[in-house]
From TrEMBL:
Gene3D superfamilies: 3.40.630.30. It is an enzyme of class 2 (transferase). Keywords: Acyltransferase, Transferase. It comes from the Bacteria. InterPro entries: Acyl_CoA_acyltransferase, GNAT_dom. SUPFAM superfamilies: Acyl-CoA N-acyltransferases (Nat). This is Diamine N-acetyltransferase. It holds the Pfam family Acetyltransf_1. GO terms for molecular function: diamine N-acetyltransferase activity. It comes from Promicromonospora sukumoe. Its EC number is 2.3.1.57. Residues 3-150 form the N-acetyltransferase domain.
Length: 150
């Protein structure tokens, strides 16, 4: 695998929008079409395609908003979607590591993520395996924190 993070472009947008979930699917994350639309109106959003040897296998959107009053929304992962066939091969972990690296470039010490612990397909175990530590609850979801200092 040759995993890379790429900015959204005319070349990869269609494949990003075809990632799961689609509108009728039951997964604990919004369809990428929502995320791309939100990125259009939120200048703090940081959407990226994850490619494997040039093929889109995932999408991650971080948010960098240091002035945000709610600490859980200042720096971290907003969305993460991995193609069904690419799951279980380290794509999600790579995306988390890339967001952590970007946080360090920005001088940020910790990143957060919110996950739905009650969903049948909750990503909780994934985030715990990636090192996130539950620190509380917000909007009915678990807040997880990851220290990204080296
Ligand atoms: C959750 C998701 C992002 C994980 O991506 P992935 O590429 O399959 O995860 P990885 O292969 O990088 O796994 C990293 C670690 O987490 C573990 N892991 C991943 N999914 C897991 C699960 N459902 N249950 C238990 N462990 C899990 C892996 O075993 C691996 O552990 P290890 O390397 O320490 O042995 C992916 O399944 C997905 O897109 N799910 C649907 C959308 C979603 O839930 N997004 C997150 C919402 S914020």
């Amino acid at each position: 695998m040759v995993l890379r993070l790429e900015e959204l472009s005319v070349d990869n947008l269609g494949d990003v929008l075809r990632l799961p979930p689609q509108a009728a699917d039951d997964e604990p994350v919004a369809p990428t079409v929502w995320s791309v639309a939100e990125a259009y109106v939120h200048p703090t959003a940081w959407p990226r395609a994850v490619t494997d040897d040039g093929v889109v296998v995932g999408f991650v959107m971080a948010n960098w908003s240091p002035e945000e009053p709610e600490p859980a929304f200042r720096a971290g992962i907003w969305r993460l979607n991995v193609a069904t066939a690419a799951r279980g091969r380290g794509v999600g972990r790579f995306a988390v590591e890339q967001v952590a690296a970007e946080a360090r470039r920005r001088g940020v010490d910790r990143i957060t993520v919110l996950w739905d612990a009650t969903h049948a397909r909750s990503p909780e175990q994934f985030y715990l395996r990636c090192g996130f530590r539950p620190t509380g609850e917000l909007l009915g979801e678990v807040v997880g924190e990851l220290d990204v200092r080296v």
